[in-house]
């Protein structure tokens, strides 16, 4: 009976492993099918190219032709590029961004300096007041102790 039992166990294990293989194949096929269906859906979603009218094409071509006609051989009013750059720079505009930023920082520093000075003075006055108050307390305490000693 043991031989029969071993045979039966082996047969059960073989059948079980066969079903596992079949299940794995089915899962893979399901995954492949899902991927294929997703790809089909994506293939259906196609961006249609923009249709450009003939008039728009002509306008674009005219613009490109207009800008393509500019050549390097044209002469400019200034011959010296260094002087040109300096003259253009001075005559056209003056960039004040850097100056504005520096002035703003300078103002901010001055304000902070003034605030610090005020705080320093206030602290000094407060220390003096505290010192005076401390002296007054000492004097009052001294007077109390003297009064108490006189009574004795």
TrEMBL record:
Location of the region described as Disordered in the Swiss-Prot/TrEMBL record: 118-152
Domain of life according to the entry: Eukaryota
Keyword Coiled coil: yes
Biased composition (Basic and acidic residues): 118-139
Coiled coil: 21-73
InterPro entries for the chain: CCDC43
Keyword terms, alphabetized: Coiled coil
UniProt biased composition (Basic residues): 140-152
Name assigned to this protein: CCD43 protein
Organism: Casuarius casuarius (Southern cassowary)
Gene it is expressed from: Ccdc43
